[in-house]
Design goal:
single chain; 230 residues; mainly alpha; 10 helices
Length: 230
């Protein structure tokens, strides 16, 4: 357990070091909030992908997949489809207007386009949603630290929150983008290594299929609390 905790601590410190190094390039509010509008398609795609493959999808959605079956795919597939619409239509249009009028946040755009009332209403709704998402992420991280290294869950939540706050506060979106690239590489390599071991430990793919009743478990539209309708 101590070895696991050591590796996790080293990984966290490496992210902080990278954040501090990137932060030297942040010299203005525009650099902090929108990375100076210099993020290209590749970097934007990578950071969005890394942000969506978080503890909520790797721990929470995976648990739902085990409990509800294939229909749990929609918990992340819906985000992927929405991201395509954002990337190909909505995002470029907002970016053009934001660059023209020096808007730096979604709130700035909403106020510019619709007025302060809409901005305030959407901010309140997003605050509630973001609070639940953040709580889910921190709880999932706490579970990982608890299982892998025996760290108490409350301490795990505090450590995760402190790490996220530290590297983002250091350099804003630019720091987050580059740290997310490192996280994406680590995640994809980890998945590639872990999946064969997990299947072997479970007894192979046939054993996994036999864990749940086939009829409902492999329904892609509805299963348990998951599904397209939800």
């Amino acid at each position: 357990m101590n070895a696991h905790l050591g590796w996790l601590a080293a990984y966290a410190l490496a992210q902080l070091a990278l954040g501090a190094w990137i932060a030297r390039r942040v010299r203005s509010a525009g650099d902090f909030f929108v990375a100076g509008r210099r993020l290209g398609p590749g970097l934007l795609f990578s950071t969005m992908l890394a942000a969506n493959i978080g503890a909520g999808s790797t721990v929470g959605a995976t648990g739902l997949g085990y409990a509800d079956g294939l229909a749990a795919t929609w918990w992340v597939l819906s985000a992927g489809l929405g991201s395509l619409v954002l990337a190909l239509a909505i995002g470029p249009a907002i970016r053009r207007v934001a660059a023209q009028h020096d808007l730096r946040t979604v709130g700035d755009y909403l106020e510019f386009r619709f007025g302060v009332g809409v901005r305030t209403t959407i901010a309140a709704l997003l605050w509630v949603g973001a609070l639940f998402i953040l709580a889910g992420q921190l709880i999932a991280v706490a579970w990982i630290l608890n299982v892998a290294a025996g760290v108490p869950k409350l301490l795990g939540c505090l450590l995760a929150g402190a790490l996220i706050t530290a590297y983002f506060a250091a350099g804003g979106l630019l720091t987050s983008a580059y740290v997310n690239i490192v996280q994406l590489v680590v995640k994809l390599v980890g998945f590639a290594i872990a999946i064969p071991f997990a299947l072997a430990a479970a007894g192979g793919w046939d054993a996994v299929r036999a864990l749940q009743p086939a009829a409902a478990y492999w329904n892609p539209w509805q299963g348990g609390a998951s599904g397209l309708v939800y």
